[in-house]
């Protein structure tokens, strides 16, 4: 009888252990919407984080929406329809200067240089910016980083953007390549895959990369509202960790492997074509090595904004940038 009681007690303990083990709490997954300014291979590390499963590893189920403009991405954050948005940090500066009660804060750097290209109608191996004098250039939205980089490129080459060229700014981002193909303009500022598709069809030729004149900028950065960051610090921290994992992976991986990984985000593109674009971007150094946004980059941006007449007084770095999450990621992931 005694042996039976001991056996029953041991059995009960074993069942209890197995039951507790079976009831192990599953990792919570948080759904978030990520608004991207446009859909482009320029943002490759972001798609790597998605398709390599780095977001899921960090407990995030990320859905990507396309805003088609930094102003629209900022509006998505302020309305709550997106929790994180990828765009140039000029939008954060603008909202701060407008006295927003819930300012937009930059927390993770993705692209540190302009990733657009200037496409012309003739092939030029020795292009000089002075060739644009008297010509029509399809540019970007007034006050946006791409437009300000274009104007800066003209200015440092002795051209007045308001007098020496005509810049078309009333064509939507998604329609500029088609407009150029239809005969509008002599030059076009465009991102990949738009640039190489124009070359492939014989509609244009890449004459220069805007990264050559942009310098280091917070060109495309992950942002969230101050209130969301304060209420959901773990989400922002995990998101930043996933992005840093992707940045490390992109840095060490071949263009062909990267293209294969992000192919689901570009189902209509040939992978070999994608690999060519990725290799070009790697050579140009457009992708940041880590998500920490340096003060120098924001200062360069605000200099461009002042030069373009979009800003009079600089906003203090700490008012629109929070590097806490990026620094934690870099320290934790080796």
Offer a quick outline of the entry.
With 334 residues, the chain is of the alpha/beta class. The chain contains 16 helices and ten strands. Mean pLDDT is 91; it is low at 1-25.
Mean pLDDT across every amino acid position: 91
- Structural class call reads alpha/beta
Radius of gyration: 24 Å
Helical proportion, percent range? 40-55%
Strand order of the largest sheet: 2-1-3-10-4
Oligomer: single chain
Strand content: 15-25%
Helical segment count: 16
Query: Span from first to last CA?
Result: 59 Å
**What is the assigned CATH homologous superfamily of the largest domain?**
Periplasmic binding protein-like II
Q: Got a strand count?
A: 10
Largest sheet: 5 strands, mixed
Q: Give unreliable regions as ranges.
A: 1-25
What is the third-level CATH name, the topology of the largest domain?
D-Maltodextrin-Binding Protein, domain 2
**Overall geometry:** globular
Q: What's the CATH C level of the largest domain?
A: Alpha Beta
Number of domains: 2
Order of helices and strands: HEHHEHEHEEEHEHEHEHEHHHHHHH
The CATH architecture designation of the largest domain is 3-Layer(aba) Sandwich
Describe the structure using short key phrases.
D-Maltodextrin-Binding Protein, domain 2, 2 domains, 334 residues, globular, five-stranded mixed β-sheet, alpha/beta, disordered N terminus, 16 helices
């Amino acid at each position: 009888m005694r042996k039976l009681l001991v056996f029953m007690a041991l059995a009960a303990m074993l069942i209890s252990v197995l039951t507790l083990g079976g009831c192990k709490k599953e990792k919570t997954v948080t759904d978030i919407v990520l608004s991207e300014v446009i859909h482009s291979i320029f943002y490759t590390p972001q798609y790597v984080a998605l398709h390599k499963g780095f977001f899921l590893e960090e407990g995030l189920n990320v859905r990507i929406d396309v805003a088609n403009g930094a102003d629209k991405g900022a509006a998505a954050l302020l309305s709550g329809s997106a929790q994180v948005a990828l765009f140039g940090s000029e939008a954060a500066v603008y909202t701060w200067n407008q006295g927003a009660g819930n300012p937009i804060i930059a927390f993770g750097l993705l692209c540190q240089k302009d990733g657009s290209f200037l496409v012309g109608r003739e092939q030029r191996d020795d292009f000089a910016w002075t060739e644009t004098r008297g010509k029509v250039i399809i540019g970007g939205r007034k006050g946006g980083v791409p437009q300000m980089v274009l104007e800066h490129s003209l200015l440092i080459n002795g051209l007045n953007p308001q007098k020496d060229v005509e810049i078309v700014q009333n064509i939507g981002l998604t329609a500029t390549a088609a407009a150029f193909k239809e005969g509008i303009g002599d030059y076009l500022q465009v991102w990949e895959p738009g640039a190489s598709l124009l070359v492939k069809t014989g509609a244009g030729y890449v004459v220069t990369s805007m990264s050559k004149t942009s310098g280091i900028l917070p060109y495309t950065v992950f942002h969230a509202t101050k209130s969301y960051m304060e209420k959901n610090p773990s989400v922002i921290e995990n998101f930043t960790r996933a992005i840093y994992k992707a940045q490390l992976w992109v840095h060490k991986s071949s263009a062909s492997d990267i293209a294969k990984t992000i192919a689901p985000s570009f189902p209509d593109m040939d992978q070999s074509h994608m690999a060519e674009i990725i290799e070009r971007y790697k050579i140009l150094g457009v992708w940041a090595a880590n998500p920490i946004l340096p003060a120098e980059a924001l200062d360069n941006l605000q200099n461009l904004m002042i030069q373009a007449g979009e800003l009079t007084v600089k906003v203090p770095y700490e008012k629109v940038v929070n590097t806490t999450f990026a620094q934690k990621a870099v320290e934790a992931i080796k």
